[in-house]
C-alpha cells in the first residue's frame, strides 16, 4: 500500500508540470496583454511600461515561467493585479463560504440520493420506481434559475421561512440561517440526475450472478442489499463523488450570485472580468492538485470497500 502511494505521488510530478506548462501557455502566450486592461482609458506608453514592469511582464517568457513554477511549488501566487491583495488571502477568505454551501449540499445529496436510488432499483418497474423516475425527470426539466427565483419569492419573501439573501461572519449562523435555502435550491437541481445515475449502478449490480447465488443460499434481502449490492455499487458512486470534490473549491456560481454569498464563484467571475491572471492561475492549479489527490483517495477507498481490488 505504501509503495503504491509513493508511486502515485511520483506520477503526479510530471502531471503537475504538464498542467503548469499548459496554464502558462494559455495565459501568458495566448491570453493577451492584461496591462492593456489594467491601464484603462488613460493609456500611455510610460504607464503601460510601468504596469508591465510591476507585473513582471517585461521579462522573457522563460523567466516568467520559472517564476510561475516557483509560485506553484510555494503555493504563493503573489498579489491580485486588480485589488493588490495577496492571492492567498483572497482565496482563503472566499473558500470557506463556498465549501460550507457546496459541501453541505453534497452531503445531503448523498444521504438522500443513495438510499432512494437503492430503493427504486430494488422495486424497479414497480409503482415506486415509476413515480420517482417521473419526479426526477420533471425536476431535471426545470431550469435552476426558475428554482432560485421561485424559492426566493415564495419561501423567503412571501412565507418568510428563509432570508432572501445574505451572509454573516459566523459559520454556524450561516449554516443554520443562510445556507438552507440555496442548498435546497441546489438539491432541486442535483437530486434528479443523481438518483437516476445511482439507480443505474444498483440495477446493474442486482442483475449479476453473485446476487442470485446469495439469494439461492438463503440470505435475506437485507443482507444481499447491504453486504453485497451496496458495497459493489458504491465503487462507481465513489468515483463520481471524488471527481466532483475538486470543483467544490470554485463554489456554486449561480447560487452565490443570487444569494449574495461571498464565495469562490464570485471571485472567479471578478478575476475573469478584470483579467486577473494570478487568481485564475491559482484556482486552476489548486483544482488540478485537488483532482490528483482525490483520484488517489478514490483508489484507496476502493481498497477499503473491496479488499480484493488490486492497486497497480
Automatic annotation (TrEMBL):
InterPro entries: BPD_transp_1_N, MetI-like, MetI-like_sf. This is Peptide/nickel transport system permease protein. Residues 95-298 form the ABC transmembrane type-1 domain. It comes from the Bacteria. The chain crosses the membrane at residues 12-31, 99-124, 131-155, 175-192, 233-259, 279-302. CDD domains: TM_PBP2 (cd06261). It comes from Silvimonas terrae. It is a multi-pass membrane protein. Keywords: Cell membrane, Membrane, Transmembrane, Transmembrane helix, Transport. The keyword Transmembrane applies. GO terms for biological process: transmembrane transport. SUPFAM superfamilies: MetI-like (SSF161098). PROSITE patterns: ABC_TM1 (PS50928). Gene3D superfamilies: MetI-like.
Amino acid at each position: 500500500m505504501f509503495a503504491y502511494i509513493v508511486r502515485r505521488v511520483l506520477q503526479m510530478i510530471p502531471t503537475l508540470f504538464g498542467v503548469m506548462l499548459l496554464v502558462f501557455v494559455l495565459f501568458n502566450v495566448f491570453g493577451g496583454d492584461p496591462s492593456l486592461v489594467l491601464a484603462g482609458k488613460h493609456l500611455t506608453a510610460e504607464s503601460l511600461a510601468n504596469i508591465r514592469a510591476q507585473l513582471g511582464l517585461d521579462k522573457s517568457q522563460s523567466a516568467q515561467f520559472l517564476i510561475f513554477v516557483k509560485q506553484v511549488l510555494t503555493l504563493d501566487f503573489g498579489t491580485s493585479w486588480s485589488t493588490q491583495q495577496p492571492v492567498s488571502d483572497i482565496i482563503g477568505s472566499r473558500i470557506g463560504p463556498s465549501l460550507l454551501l457546496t459541501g453541505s449540499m453534497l452531503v445531503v445529496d448523498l444521504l438522500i440520493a443513495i438510499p432512494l436510488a437503492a430503493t427504486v432499483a430494488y422495486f424497479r418497474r414497480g409503482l415506486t420506481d415509476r413515480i420517482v423516475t417521473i419526479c426526477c425527470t420533471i425536476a431535471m426539466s426545470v431550469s435552476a434559475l426558475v428554482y432560485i427565483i421561485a424559492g426566493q419569492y415564495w419561501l423567503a419573501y412571501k412565507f418568510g421561512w428563509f432570508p432572501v439573501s445574505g451572509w454573516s461572519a459566523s459559520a454556524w449562523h450561516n449554516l443554520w440561517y443562510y445556507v438552507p435555502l440555496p442548498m435546497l435550491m441546489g438539491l432541486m437541481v442535483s437530486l434528479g440526475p443523481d438518483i437516476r445515475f445511482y439507480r443505474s449502478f444498483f440495477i446493474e449490480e442486482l442483475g449479476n450472478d453473485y446476487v442470485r447465488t446469495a439469494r439461492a443460499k438463503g440470505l435475506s434481502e437485507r443482507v444481499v442489499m447491504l453486504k453485497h449490492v451496496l458495497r459493489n455499487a458504491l465503487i462507481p458512486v465513489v468515483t463520481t463523488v471524488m471527481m466532483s470534490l475538486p470543483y467544490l473549491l470554485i463554489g456554486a456560481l449561480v447560487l452565490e450570485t443570487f444569494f449574495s454569498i461571498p464565495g469562490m464563484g464570485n471571485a472567479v467571475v471578478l478575476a475573469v472580468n478584470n483579467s486577473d491572471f494570478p487568481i485564475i492561475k491559482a484556482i486552476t492549479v489548486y483544482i488540478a492538485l485537488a483532482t490528483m489527490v482525490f483520484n488517489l483517495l478514490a483508489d484507496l477507498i476502493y481498497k477499503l470497500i473491496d479488499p480484493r481490488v488490486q492497486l497497480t
